[in-house]
Amino acid sequence: MRLSRYFMPTLREAPADAQIVSHQLMLRAGMIRQEAAGIYAWLPLGLKVLKKIEQVVREEMDRAGAIEVLLPTLQLADLWRESGRYDDYGDEMLRIKDRHDRDLLYGPTAEEVITEIFRAYVKSYKDLPKNLYNIQWKFRDERRPRFGVMRGREFLMKDAYSFDIDEAAARRSYNRMFLAYLNVYARLGLKAIPVKADPGPIGGDLSHEFIILADTGESEVFAHGDLVEMGAPGPDIDWDGDLEPMVNQRARLYAASDEMHDQARFEAEVPADKRMTARGIEVGHIFYFGEKYSKPMKALVTGPDGKDVPIHGGSYGVGVSRLVAGIIEASHDEAGIIWPDAVAPFGVAVVNLRPGTAEVDAVAEQAYKALGDLGKEPLLDDRDDRPGAKFASIDLVGIPWQLIVGPKGVAEGVVEIKRRATGERQTLPLDAALKVIAG
Length: 439
What we know:
Elements: H1 21-28, E1 32-36, E2 39-42, H2 44-63, E3 67-69, E4 74-76, H3 77-83, E5 94-97, E6 103-106, H4 111-121, E7 130-139, E8 154-164, H5 167-187, E9 192-196, E10 206-213, E11 219-224, H6 225-230, H7 244-251, E12 255-257, H8 263-269, E13 275-290, H9 294-297, E14 300-302, E15 308-310, E16 312-319, H10 320-330, E17 332-333, E18 336-337, E19 348-352, H11 358-373, E20 378-381, H12 387-397, E21 401-405, H13 407-412, E22 415-419, E23 425-428, H14 430-438
Parallel strand pairs: 3-7, 19-20, 19-21
Antiparallel strand pairs: 1-2, 4-6, 5-6, 7-8, 8-16, 9-10, 10-13, 11-12, 11-13, 13-16, 14-15, 17-18, 21-22, 22-23
Helix pairs in contact: 1-10, 2-5, 2-10
C-alpha cells in the first residue's frame, strides 16, 4: 500500500475527552472515529488490526475443536423470556419492536439463540460434545460508555458455547477453552492471568476472567508470581487428552482482581517473595453454567439409558475489539503505539525521504516490492512531507519495522532499518536489511 493513496487521518493531538492512552492513540492514529456515545466507525488502519486479532482468535478456537457459526445481531425476545433473562437483564439491553409489533433485542450475548439452534438439531448424546463459536457485533447500552472501545456500547466479541452430556464432560470442555485462551493471548504478545471470577448475569458456578497486565489497567490484580511467569501451554496440546493437570497447575495458584481479592488468603497462600500486585485489563471471561439454559429452554438429548436429559453448557467470551485497546495499553511509549508483529496493520514502513528523486524512488520501490514478495505487508511512505513528520506518524501508528531510504544512503549503497519496539537502528546494504527484517 502506498501511503499517498491510503486513508490514514492522523491527528497531532487527541481530543480532550479521550481519557486513557488507548483511546487517545487510536484517535490520533486514525484507527477509529466516534459516531455516537460508545459507538465507533473502524477506519482502515483500525480495521486491519481488528481483523488480525479476530483471525488469531479463530485459529485457536478451531485448534481446540470449536466450530464457527454466524448468529444474528437481532434476537427474538421470546427466546429470552424462555430462559427467564428478558426481564432480569436490565437497562443494558436494547429492546426493539419491528413493524409487526414483535419484541426484538440487539444481542448483548447469544446463549438463548445458540441453545435454540442446538435443540432443533441435536437429539442424542452420541452427537456430543459440541462447541459452537460466533464472532459477531454485540450491543450493551452502557450507562456511561467511556474509554473508547475499551468500554463502548457496540463491540466485537467472540462467544463460544459448549454442549455436553453431564458435568464431568462439560468441565473437560471448559478446560479446553481455559488453555485455548492462554494461547490466544500469548500469540497476541500479551501476558494473561486467569483469575477466579463472578459469573454475573450469565450464571453458573465456575468462572474465570483473563486479565492482561498493563500499567494503565482499570483493575488491580493480586497473583502468585509463578502464575505470571508460567505462560501459555503452546500449540502442542493433546486436546482429546486429560487437560485437568495443566489447568489445575494454573488454577490452584492464587490470582484475583480487586473485587474478588482476599488479602488474608493471599498472604497465607503466597510466599512474600512471590506476591505480585499489578494493574490489568479484563479481556476474556469463561463460564460453566450447567443446566441454567437447557432446563427452561428444554434443550434435551437422549442419554445412554434412553432417557432425555438436559445438556450441560458453558460459554466463553473474548472481547476482540476490546483487545485492540488492551494491546495498546500494554504496549506503547511516548511516541505512540508499539504493535506486536502478529497484529500490526503493516509489517514494514518503507520511508522515502526524498520522493521525486529518481535514484531514491528506485531503491524505495525495489524495497517495497521485495518486502511484498516476502509477505511482510509493506507500507510505502511516498508522501511529499518533511522527514520528521514522516517518522512521527510512522512511530505513532506503531509499524514494527522502518526501512529508511534517503539520498545519502543511496549514494553509499545502504539503507537504514529501525525496530519500533526497541529503537535499535542498523545501516546495511538493501539485501542485508531485507534479510534482517525477514528474520
